[in-house]
Amino acid sequence: MSLSPGKTLRDLRERKPLVHQITNYVVMNETANATLALGALPVMAHAREEVEEMVALAGALVINIGTLSPPWVEAMLAAGKAANAAGVPVVLDPVGAGATRYRTDTVKRILDEVDVAVLRGNQGEIATLVGVQAEVRGVESVGVGGAPADLARTAARNLGLVASVTGVVDHVSDGKRVLAVANGHELLAAVTGTGCMSTAVTGCFLAAKRDVPLEAGAEALAAFGVAAEDAAHDAKGPGSFHVGLYDALAALDPVTLDERARIS
Amino acid sequence: MSLSPGKTLRDLRERKPLVHQITNYVVMNETANATLALGALPVMAHAREEVEEMVALAGALVINIGTLSPPWVEAMLAAGKAANAAGVPVVLDPVGAGATRYRTDTVKRILDEVDVAVLRGNQGEIATLVGVQAEVRGVESVGVGGAPADLARTAARNLGLVASVTGVVDHVSDGKRVLAVANGHELLAAVTGTGCMSTAVTGCFLAAKRDVPLEAGAEALAAFGVAAEDAAHDAKGPGSFHVGLYDALAALDPVTLDERARIS
Amino acid sequence: MSLSPGKTLRDLRERKPLVHQITNYVVMNETANATLALGALPVMAHAREEVEEMVALAGALVINIGTLSPPWVEAMLAAGKAANAAGVPVVLDPVGAGATRYRTDTVKRILDEVDVAVLRGNQGEIATLVGVQAEVRGVESVGVGGAPADLARTAARNLGLVASVTGVVDHVSDGKRVLAVANGHELLAAVTGTGCMSTAVTGCFLAAKRDVPLEAGAEALAAFGVAAEDAAHDAKGPGSFHVGLYDALAALDPVTLDERARIS
Hints:
The structure is a homotrimer.
Chain A: H1 5-15, E1 18-22, H2 28-38, E2 41-44, H3 51-55, E3 60-64, H4 70-86, E4 90-93, H5 101-113, E5 118-122, H6 123-129, E6 134-137, E7 140-144, H7 148-159, E8 162-166, E9 170-173, E10 178-181, H8 194-208, H9 213-233, H10 238-251, H11 254-260
Parallel strand pairs in A: 1-2, 1-3, 3-4, 4-5, 5-8
Antiparallel strand pairs in A: 6-7, 8-9, 9-10
Helix pairs in contact in A: 1-8, 1-9, 1-11, 2-8, 2-10, 6-7, 8-9, 9-10
């Protein structure tokens, strides 16, 4: 194990991997800009007619069900299978799982048919998927029983993937180890799509370090959290924080990032 | 009558109602962020497969036809009917009614099949729906005959709802009383989707004060207008004004809001 | 020939033409806001049921295939043909042509069935369409052989339109003359959708100067580039640059614009 978000960020900026994202309407611009600010290349493409060809060019595939509908779900499944066939790692964001049956069932179907490397969600969403009692209000997690570290480990074991559970402290687990990431800022909760952005950043890091998804997942959250800390510095509220987040992602310094990452 | 946007805002922030929005692609991020900045929880969901389940969890439903197409219209109708059945108040934004027959007909169909609590539009859109001569250029109102207060009252009476007609001065009517709201700033017209945001904010206030939609509608426009005044203070143009609007919504102070609201 | 971006901008702000945009999900808010900041009126409408009626009201139609799918392509074709019938000039942005067959084929189909006035793309996209060797990574051009001025001229000749090829220096050609535009800033590459914005601005200028698309195309890129130079002045990174771009578009001064435009 050699955790170094700085090194992974440096590699990512050098290689500029294409990160194919099939995501929701609310955050498309935001996750594309986060990807670009970090140093990777985003591409948004969801047509059944092109997703298989597009994903084969990519360093990672990000699937996010935030505003799902049947044709999009079909594209997610097709892209996910093509990614698996081409050895492209897949990140899944189960936005709102637990809020409606359609969301929960769709996530289960994707997990069933696609080999997902990292599942990045909030506590309520992840708890829903492993049968732990949770309350999800729309797309917000508002109450989950149990310790988040246990939740991450259980999800990783039961679902056979790396579970990345974000909250005040994030927990990333491959079923054996659990890494806690204590970076971030409370203003993240005041801007829509910051969870989706952390998923996109996870895709970027995974594209740069695909062999160790546990570490890529934790490093991504540390990097995103450090950028949030920087953005919060001069923010007057959620609007200026949101803008500052892209400036901070672009300005992330690989050297100090390693010192500032609070991964344990 | 006890108009107090400050009190309603305080209630809203305490209860954090879920505001389900079926809105247009252009402003989804913007209305979600305005909702969140104000203190409520947004959720965007448009699939026929989940809208009925989602809206039953919500404190209000916002329907906005800005980039309508047949599957979305079906979802709007299904969600609207489910909202009615569950006692969830519905706000409708008839974006671009009058510009094309498809928009005008769709709004009429929604008004026919769904019990709408508040109809929030510009003068040209509302005039179109009550048969008053108006010119709508794309989604902008560029010329309407008659006084806006009369228009609001007529629309409220003819359509059996609260009509919220925004302009330089806004007018909100339940068919009997007309409340004029004189807050706001001209920079609102320089940013796309600020009308849609005012509709989302109306949904938030309605979720917090559902029994008096006339007051909720006027208070929402006053609160949004005061936030715009604050945002304009340091703005250098439409871009920085737009960012400042979220900061200002989050910073709205319930105490001074009551003093600053210009509702008559 | 009388190149004057300042004069065209003044005309545009006076007439406030409606610019109908059928564009991608990622940049809809951004291109609408760029259009509005510049002084024109944007309208986003993509339903087969209304595009023909909407485009007849417009001063220009912008088609952008960034997140294409079959129903949207049908709407683009219908709107494009209706625009041609009504004498409304059409701008096409072939986002990602060359990355997948679906994108390349769709652009060719649109060029075949619709009379396009200006084709605005990056070097890789334009090269793909005229059979010049190019590498397109997602929606980014990462390597094209040959001089961009020759590429613009060849594309204009072969496709029978004005080709507007953006890059470090932009080249706009009608097949005979080639205008080079040397405005802009490297931060444009750090924000998603700035190419799409330049296409929307091209649509605005074309609506104000439809008889000379070569000049309208070059003037639009000069104006957008000058705004980018202004926005870069106080920017701390891609986020604040993005915000500043709208402020700068709104603040563009027609008098100094002519002096600052570097068109040769």
